[in-house]
Amino acid sequence: MPRYEASTTIEAPADGVWRLLCSVDAWPQWLPTVSRAQALDGGPLAVGRRYRIEQPRLRPAIWTVTALESGRRFEWRARSPGMTMVADHRVAPEGHQAVRVQLSFAFRGLLGSVLGMVYGDLARRYLQQEAQALKQRVEAG
After folding, report:
1. Is 55 in contact with 126 (CB distance < 8 Å)?
2. How many CA atoms lie within 13 A of 56 on its CB side?
3. DSSP letter at 57?
4. pLDDT for position 80
5. Inter-residue contact 4 to 120 (CB < 8 Å)
6. Integer CA distances (angstroms), 133 to 34, 59, 74, 101, 108, in order
7. Per its UniProt record, what InterPro entries does this chain match (predicted)?
8. Whole-model pTM?
């Protein structure tokens, strides 16, 4: 199934990068690829929590957190008939004051390959924009 990735190195402590990355409700304030984010279950990021995400050029989706390693990684999934979208967000320390952020996105299921052909370029662009926006936001303070 189609999978897309973007990564960047951010000159900042890992805890600050993680704090911003997992504050999903605040994404529309600094992330150009998200126009609205709503926590449906309240509380901090946790396995099982759901978020309604609206993005330009895409239908709104309900994302459910399926894996969480606090301070390091979270994965979430959104389902539609015939397809599941999977997004992974990773933060890995690279020395004392730097981290490597890796964002990935995949289409899975019967329609995954077809949607990958239709939306693959947009997925690549959004991942790159997200990695760069995170870097700029954190490094700007």
Report:
1. yes
2. 10
3. T
4. 87
5. yes
6. 11, 22, 18, 12, 26
7. Polyketide_cyclase/dehydratase, START-like_dom_sf
8. 0.92
> d(Cα 26, Cα 123) in Å, to the nearest integer?
21
- Are the C-beta atoms of 1 and 112 separated by less than 8 Å? yes
The H or E element that residue 119 is part of is helix 112-140
CATH of the domain at 76: 3.30.530.20
Q: Which domain holds residue 112?
A: 3-22+65-140
The one-character DSSP state at 47 is: T
82 falls within a domain: yes
Q: How many CB atoms lie within 10 A of CB 120?
A: 16
Q: What is the pLDDT of residue 95?
A: 82
Half-sphere exposure (CA, 13 Å, Cβ side) for 21? 31
* Eight-class DSSP state of 24: G
> What does the radius of gyration of the chain's CA atoms come to, in whole angstroms?
15
What DSSP character marks residue 50? Answer: E
CB of 85 closer than 8 Å to CB of 61: yes
Digit-coded pLDDT (tens) for 103-124? 999 989 887 787 778 888 999 9
